[in-house]
Every structure is written in C-alpha cells, then in structure tokens.
Amino acid sequence: MTLIRWFGQLNTYLLQFFSISTEDDLNFRIAEALQVSSVKEDLHHDTHAVSPHQILTIPEHEIHSRRQQQNTSNNNELLLTQDRCTLLRKLRKVYCLLDQSVKTVNSAYGVQNLTQISSSLICIVVETYGIAVNLHGLSNALHGDLRIINAVQLSLWFGLMVWRIVGICYSCEMVIQEARCTQRLVTKLQMLSLPASSGVQEELQLFGEQLARSPLRYSAAGFFTLDLSLLKTIVAAVTTYLVILIQFSVADTNVELF
Hints:
The chain has one domain. It is 79% helix and 0% strand. α1 packs parallel to α4. It starts with a helix and ends with a helix. The chain is elongated. It is mostly helical and 258 residues long.
C-alpha cells in the first residue's frame, strides 16, 4: 500500500508541475492544443488568399506595449520551463528509486508469495470439495447438523484463503496500474504545445524512454505473474480439479451402492 501511495503522489506532482489538476483536465488541454494547432495550419494555408488591403494596421504604441508584455511573458515562461526541467529530472530519479523498491520487494517476497498462493490454492480445492461433499450428501461420514456445521467451517476457511489470494493480487495490480498511469501521463504531456527551446519536451521524452525500458511486474519467484489476471487462472484450476474430484466421489458412491 505504501508503494501505491508513493506512485500516486508521483503522478499528482507530475500534473501539478504543469498546472493541471486531474487527467481529465490534461485531456482537455491536449484537445485544446490540437485544435489550436489545426487552426494555425488553416491560417497558414490561407495566407496566400489574403490581400494586403485586408490586413489591419496596428498603431505603433500598441505594438510597443504588446512587445513589452510578450518579453515579460517570455521571461516568466523561461523561468517556469527551467524549473520544470529541474523538477522533471528529480521526478525521474524518484521513479528510479520506486522502481528499485518494487524490484527489491519482489525479490524478497517472491518465494513467500509462491508458497502462499500454492498453499491457498490447494486449500481452496480441498475446502470446496468438502463443501460440495457435505451439501450434496456424497459422503456418509457426517449426518444432520454435523454436516451443516462442517460445511460452515469449511466455508470460513475457504473465504480466508480467497481473501489472501485476492489481497496479494490486488495490491500488486494497483502498483502496476499506478506505474502505467505515470507512463500514460508522460505520453500525454508530450502532446502539449511546449516551447521547443525550453528543454521540457526533451525531459519528457527521456522520462518516457525510461518508463518504457523498465516496466514493472510482480512475480512469484518467476513462476507466474502476480496480478488480477491470475484470479482467472485460479478459478479455472479450482473448477477443473473440483469437477474431477466430484466425479471420483460419485463413481465411488455408485460402486458402494452396487
């Protein structure tokens, strides 16, 4: 959970550096920048059709005031872009540290996660089979209320094992999703209309290359990936083993009847 919070703060800071509050706001800025660029291209193509008499003359004092305002805004923009470049370098270092932290955690708890997932899977299969046997009366070992009590106990253990697996897969998936969100935000920020001489575009490009070269993933000691897709595999495996065990139980019951 700590890594999830740190990656979330990294994404928040990345947006705040560009005076953007949310990703929806970033999408709006991108759409606005694309619309402005398309309008500029249309004006550039239509300049040959404009006659000199159609161009309005601007007074000299207004031109001088506009130049002063433009110089002031350019100086402020230059300082702002320099700060952004410095902060982007720091964010790249922070992401590198977080990436190393994820790899350290994955290496330290890989065998433990493999043991927990494997043992929980075996317990889920056994407990599900026990619940099915008790509820459908495939075994004559228990009768009446004892059968119901045993089914309730197995259900509690079943829920505990499922909670362990879901907790591990969900926490790993959230970290991966936050890291993917960082990569998505960096890609979208490159689409903004940024000054070419500011260096921000180059820093964003380097950040994007860094993210592409070091994708995050959790694994159980290299045997399988830990994410929400693992739950589908576990459900399929439990269903397969459960059907096989129930078929053997039904076959044994029929043999005893004969």
